[in-house]
Amino acid sequence: MTLQTLVTRFVTCMPDWDAMTQTTTGECQRSQATVAPSDELDDRLLQSLENDAMLKAALSEFATATGANATMSDTLSQLSSTTKEALLTPLRQAPQPYLGASVAPFPIEAYTSSPFYDDISGVFALIFILSYLYITSRILVIFIQEKELRLREYMKILGVKERVIITTWYITYTIILFFGAVLEALMGLVGLFANSSVIVIFLFFFLFGLSVLCFAFFISTIFSNARTGSFVGMIVFFLMYFVAQAFTDDSPEDDIAQACIMPPVALSFGLSTIADFETSGIGANFGNLNTLNVNFRLGTALQMFLLDCVFYTLLGLYFERVIPKEYGTTLKWYFPFSPSYWRGRKKSVPTSETPTDSLLDNVAVDLNPNIERVSAELREQERRGEALSVQRLRKTFEVPGGTKVAVKGLDLVMYKDQITCLLGHNGAGKSTLISMLTGMAAPSSGDATYRGLSLNQDMEEIRESLGICFQHDVLFEDLTVEEHLLVFGRVKGYRNEELQELVASQIRQVGLTEKRHVFSKDLSGGMKRKLSVAISLLGDSSLVFLDEPTSGMDPYSRRSTWEILLNNRNDRVMVLTTHFMDEADILGDRIAIMAEGELRCCGSSLFLKNQFGAGYNLTLVKDDAKCDDKAVTNLIKSYVPSAELLSNVGSEIAFQLPQKSSPMFAPMFTDMDNKMGTLGLLSYGISATTLEEVFIKVAEADDVNHQHTLGHRARPDSKELDAGVVLQTS
Fold first, then answer.
1. Where do the DSSP E strands lie in 289-401?
2. Which of 176, 201, 432 is nearest to 301 (CA)?
3. What is the pLDDT of residues 472-513, one digit of tens each?
4. What are the tens digits of pLDDT across the range 665-676?
5. CA–CA gap between residue 687 and residue 646 (Å, rounded)
6. Burial of 707 (0-12, 13-18, 19+ CB in 10 A)
7. Domain 607-725 in CATH: superfamily?
8. pTM score > 0.85 for this model?
9. Domain-by-domain residue ranges, the chain?
10. How far apart are CA 363 and CA 411, in angstroms?
11. Superfamily grouping for domain 383-606
């Protein structure tokens, strides 16, 4: 007898109950609880059994096992009277369907299943994670490569704010991800997510794409190598997926929500929830965003995607400013808590008498005669703040085994309307100095000022007036010559017709008219240098740095570039580095020679030649069999007592003659012509001392270990030669 029959019988029977003994005899108090037996009733009850599903199933199994093929009615008719009575007794209990009562199952929700989602549920999220790995790697490569190729620093130097650069990348990829999410939503509408709201699916994938973008930006701030950064970023992104697999159906909802700070975790749980909604035939829509499904809500995924965007962007902006990198300056780790960072700094105002002025007067004149004293007009520039004034600038680097000093407390002033040439051997500190002056490296101590702005405090404002041509071309490969100038022209504030005229003028000036619409990657090395020079001189750049601008150019292009620089130096402070001494001699209004991080001398080309014993070089070709070296030397010294022997190697002997001795040249040459045979000379020639010789003397005097020069020359009298090259230093 079933439980349902017992309960029904108890309710309808109402057996008698003795309250004192708390027992019952089982006799019904209602006679109608049991139907009286009759042949007609028994036939009807037995016929009702023919529709019983359980009996039908049992009879079917019995027929299969025995091979008999009997119907339910045949089976019931063959039962004995005792067996029939056992079946009929519980059936006679009220209520009966034919007596006016009925029995129905309690309503429950219908259960549906999807073989497709059941089969792929284990790899559904993984498929989408793998599909986004490529997008993640591309974003990482572009972000990091921009730093690796110095393009970001280049744009910042030319006046583009860092926040503008990052915002433009965000806008670019937001547009790409927007159309990608639209495509995913439309494809899902006719396939995977047929029952879901297309807007909900679009929001889900669009917000996930944005979180991937922000995550990639954060990772890009840690690395400076595109290959390494993209590889590590993809691995970290992929491993985040397995965090989601560590949760079970019993995991608390809050724990899952916290783990969704990792975008792949939120994607995994979100896709699982959408799949469950699709299986039930309802689909994901705005009505069930907050419906709890296996301890997760689809709305939580959308909210966490937005939180991820904010979190990773802020983290990336912080790391971008504090992590040391090869190019660019960094801030202290606590800069967000510094009031001065948010308040900004007051712009300094140049005074009528700057410390640099007095410093220059004292050092240049009294202590260091190797620095040429400037005119009153140039000193006035310093007082007005129009010159670039470097004050005790120092830069050190931590290297294995100690600290390397690259620039040692350098003092130097670079004037407007002039080209200041920086010379020095490799490792002298020229590039480090330019890196500090352009904000690509932070000085360890000291400062520099320009137009009342401090290098340490107002670098962003200084960069608004700055132009630079790097030693190695920093160009966008997929932009043409014209597009480069248009981009940076807009950065400088030019618009419309004025911009077009400026671009056309620059292209014509550097001789790239025929290459106007050619991509920079297709230009030759010399043409790339021309484009870099054109960008550095674009617009109103009043402070221009040119790091070996003519390297890689043919002689004709070099000469034309010299003309361009000379024609564009007005109203500009122009700083040039070069390894071509003739270039420095022609272009340099003032030439500064550095060695071992220090300024050794500074002045005009004529000043340097005079200061370092430069005058004329007399070279004589000997007949080795007949030449009398002592007689030749005595003849030269009889006319120019201060003549110095430079070298006596092989068949050549060379003397250096001071500039003031030029009046004695005519009689000396006449006497020499008359005694050529006697002295054993074949020929002779005289030339003015070049800047290259000055440079070599400065380098040799400083380079006691001969790390950068050709070494000792063969000299018969080393004492005499050494006396001629000693620098006058304090």
1. 388-399
2. 201
3. 889 999 999 999 999 999 988 888 899 999 999 999 999 999
4. 999 999 999 989
5. 14
6. exposed
7. Malonyl-CoA ACP transacylase, ACP-binding (3.30.70.250)
8. no
9. 3-99, 115-322, 383-606, 607-725
10. 9
11. P-loop containing nucleotide triphosphate hydrolases (3.40.50.300)
